[in-house]
Design goal:
- The structure holds two protein chains of two kinds.
- Chain A is built from 16 helices and nine strands.
- By secondary structure, chain A is mainly α.
- In chain A, the strands form four sheets. A three-stranded antiparallel beta sheet of chain A has the order 7-8-9, with no helix packed on it. In chain A, strands 1-4 form a two-stranded antiparallel sheet.
- In chain A, helix 3 packs across helix 10, helix 7 packs across helix 13 and helix 14 packs antiparallel against helix 16.
- By secondary structure, chain B is mainly α.
- Chain B folds into two domains: 69 residues, no CATH class; 176 residues, Cytochrome Bc1 Complex, Chain D, domain 2, CATH 1.10.760.10.
- Chain B has a two-stranded antiparallel sheet with strand order 1-2.
- The longest helix of chain B is centred in the last third of the chain and has 24 residues.
- The two termini of chain B are 40 Å apart.
- Classes of the chains: A mainly alpha, B mainly alpha.
- Chains A and B meet through helix 3, helix 5, helix 7, helix 10 and helix 11 of A and helix 2, helix 8, helix 9, strand 3 and helix 12 of B.
Chain lengths: 490, 304
Amino acid sequence: MIVARRPPRRLARTMRLGEERLGAARAIKWALRYVFPDHWTFLLGEIALYAFIVLVATGVFLTLYYVPSDTQVIYRGPYDLLRGEQMSEAFRSVLDLSFNVPAGLLVRQIHHWAADVFVAAIVLHLIRIFFTGAYRKPRDLNYFIGLTMLMLAILEGFAGYSLVDDLLSGMGLAIAYSVALSIPFVGAQLGYLIWGGQFPGSSDFFPRLEIIHVLVIPLALAVLITMHLAMIMRHRHTQFPGPGRRERNVVGTPLWPAYALRSIGLLLAVAAVLFLVGGLIQVNPIWQWGPYHGYLSENGAQPDWYIGWLIGALRLMPNWEPTIAGHTLIPNPFWGGVLFPTVVFAMMFAWPALERRVTGDYRRHDLLDRPRDRPVRTAIGAAFLSWVVIIFAVGSTDRIFVRLHIPYEEQVHFWRVGVWLLPIIVFFATRQTCRWLARTGSHPLRAWEGALIARRPDGGFEVLADSPEGPGSIESGPPIGTAPGQESEL
Amino acid sequence: MSALARRWLTRRARAPRALRATVALLMGTAALLILASPRSPQASGAATPPAATGSGGAAAPAQAPQPPGTGRSKFPEAPAPGERTVATPSSPTLLAEGRSLYEEGCSSCHGMDLKGRTRMAPSLVGVGAGPVDFYLSTGRMPLENPHAEPLRTTPLYSRARIQALVAFVSSFGGPPAPTTDPGAGDLALGLHDFTLDCAGCHQIVGRGGLTIGAIVPELQSATAQQVAEAVRMGPYVMPRFGPRQIDQHALDSIARYVLWTRAPSDRGGWGISNIGPIPEGMVAWFLALTALVIVARLIGERTN
């Protein structure tokens, strides 16, 4: 009995403490009673949030050992294959971190895996937000914050692995420099500004990159995450339509005591999976890549996955450079490296306003759509996603060539057409699937539960009352699971 | 959608007519200028595929593969003093066996007189033992289609038959086969020289890759002897490295490093094939994130 009564008492004491000093009892009560609707896809963003926490924790550790310096030194550490090799102090500091610092390699690998998972979780979260229409008014502002965080996360990841100055990241920076140079009119100045000189840049470059990676972008992300969460609390969660769920209420679990425990469980799961992967699977083995020098290159150099779509775009883009009187107007890397990501993000930023305009639906929406109930939006989203995914996949055509012996040039030529055709096919296929799902009421992720039928004396069949599908005739059962108000398709 | 398109096409213009006309004129002039201007050789050439790595700083060996038999001769040089070679076996019975094997399996392309055939197969006169041993022991010869890239397969001939063919072709002249002693090599020097001379095509851990028109092989099944032969001969589109570029000690070291790449030091755990970010991205998505999504699925819905 005492055990059961203690937590509320402790809670009450905390509340009193807060109330007497800050007058915060109402706010705490409001927060503790905040209701989370039940759906597992609402946890995807939380995975990203907790990956960010792991990133900050491991990142602080790594910062203590990293030296942002391009001063050339000779390696004299314990790794035989690089002993006597000339390298930058930055690279040596990461080698020492990996081989000399207790748990250094583990923490570095956790950090790298956490970065990969962080961006992946954001993308998955964004996909959920898009296909359920959660970005609609009043949450469009929060959707823009999320997109901004995705851009920052990609930039942050690139800055992070570029700090190491190994062969792979050095080549990545060389590509980034070429892309910066390709921006019309301002490219040369921009490259000079960022690198502090011509590639590989002045000695200021690595300190700059480090501050951007460990302070500027993380701080911006932290502020944006706070705003993101505050706005979710302000708007309250969206929810899927269901019994008792209306536009202006939220049906679910309160933060205290139920949801908080669940969320802490997810935090621990994220940390556990990242520690497990970080301890068991090798990531970015820089001692195998060796140090970077401007005259070195290796075959098959790839960026981390969240930059892969840009490499794919660079490869896919035809050799097209408009010139005026012999002067190149727009160097080729501009199309894939600058224009393509700009277009992708511009389309995502423009979508909520575009949809409002086309559908004429300027109302506030707190109930989510099931993807099938908005076939055109779902189809456009799927087509757009397939467009980006194809370009992303083209980034690994060289490895496909080596593995499967499909000629590289033919792959590129094929996808130059396919990248436009396949999304169109995806559009129509998705729209048809959505309509079919909406009509039949079946669920794509759940197995068909079947129906219990009995034969009638006249030879026909009828569905029994205790069947999972409910009673009715087989030929013309009413569609199940159709929500009201589905006249508009988009 | 069509109603939308019609509405857009018949919408009232917002910019004044004069402004629109000026913009149209400017755009037209620019388009004309772009079309009329002399195209740069890069832009007018046949659409060359982007470089393998898309790298700005990396100079890939942009040497198009030449059809066998038409390229410049890549005869191995005579070994410099101090170079390790393998003595070429020779005996009348071996030569006789080699001749019959040659006539049966090689002569249709390389010719009965070993002089090769134009646009089909190079001459074998004077190539020596190294290339013959390399192409046969890696299974690259005999080649089914003489215009295809020779790729590593299971060797068709046994060791003894390869010896016979080596003896037979060597009897037409040429240096003995080069070889290495990986034990005498220095692993650190091997990595250093491999990074300089080999990684640009073979990838830094010898996992192979792409060069224009050819697959660069992985090196994990190469023996020390085959490494030496390939370096000295330069098979297919690979450049040849003489003793002035890679001396015997460097060659021993490179061979030692190549053997090391069969089981490189994966201190971080499972090496996921040592080619970098592609498998890493797969692990992030299909292992780590998938596991977390399953966790979310399990704890996310408790009420139903």
